[in-house]
Amino acid sequence: MTIVVFVGSLLGAMALGMPIAFSLLASGIALMFHLGNFDTQIIAQSMLEGVNNYPLMAVPFFMLAGELMNAGGLSSRIVKVAEAAVGHVRGGLGYVAIIAATVVASISGSAVADTAAVAALLIPMMRNAGYDVPRSAGLIAAGGIIAPVIPPSIAIVVFGVVAQVSITKLFLTGIAPGAMMALTLTATWHFCARKEQAAATTQRFDLRRLRGALMDGVWALVLPAVIIGGMKIGAFTPTEAAVVAVVYAMAVGRFVYGELNLCDLPRLIVTATKTSSTVLFLVACALVSAWLITIANIPAQVTALLDPFIDNKILLMFVIMVLVIIVGTALDLMPTVLIMTPILMPVITKAGIDPVYFGVMFILNNAIGLLTPPVGTVLNVVAGTSRCSLDSVIAGVWPFLLSLTALMFLFVLFPQLILVPASWLR
What we know:
The structure is a single chain. The protein is mainly α. It has two domains: 1-38, no CATH class; 54-425, no CATH class. 77% of the residues lie in helices and 0% in strands. It has helices at 2-15, 20-35, 40-51, 58-71, 74-86, 92-108, 111-128, 133-144, 154-163, 167-193, 207-232, 238-256, 265-295, 298-305, 313-328, 333-351, 355-368, 377-386, 390-413, 416-425. α4 runs antiparallel to α13 (265-295) and α6 packs parallel to α8 (133-144). The longest helix has 31 residues, at 265-295. It is globular, with a radius of gyration of 22 Å.
């Protein structure tokens, strides 16, 4: 009955048009009434304690680092390096988009920010070169969802806080699947580009041009290595890494590239603050529901429902991944993480599945949900940037969506693809 109360109140609030954060809060209050334990002080205290968490400080700093990176010219130089390296091959701008999305993702940590930055730079170039724009927009949207998987992923920070799993281990474990996502998109684009006449190019490889782009962009390319390397050797925590990223992006954008004006800082800080406050308020409201979900013993009820699959880890993961795909079509990434993490973690613990492996798989699945209609946040960002209809972008993203989904289920069948590289990096 408690599951019905929670899900019914949540869906009912969303159906009335209530924002996700308030819907989560309403479902928590509904649970309190159902349990006969309504207390406004508990709600306020749970919200305050939910965001009063040191690792969550990484969220606003990584958001600000992404804004500084775009304003300071780091993103554009990453694109120029990729263009000089592979722009001469057939379908070269598609490969440029994948490389740029992967490198920018390792700095921004946000799928929306990553996609917006790459789309703004590359969609006009691909349109002028005669590429199929909806297919190109679909590729850039698919590349954007690498950001939630590889460090410094904001989604992983939130999952680590809610699930009480090491964020550093999650970061390092996400590197290999993120790289495999990029390789999968590369293979899919290679197949798609063979069918496009405009994908052919007369441009030749120019070593001097590549050398110049590398010399100009080296400061931007070093930042991911600084973040990951620093966490690997224990020089700083993920939260401290976010501060390092802000200071580095500000210094490079201002003193090396000279494109970051000090008068722009207030605007960038306000933009990052607005985005961060949305995420953190969502976390605060979700943790009220998470606490009440535990009190109402909903995880035990879900565990009982999944008991037939507990003894078979692969089958259990398959069932959970299908469930998350279904939920991901209706909810955005962050709400899904916040709602389902406290429900699923006891199941994962009972089944003996590595929580770090599950965390990366869970975030990967939710990232794919950013490409699935009707919500598809990343699809909407690309549609707006490319000036294409949402329907045409959805049609263009399907080959990449299917290939990434197939990769995810490959990880379900062969967990070693994630766990073995993670053992090398940890």
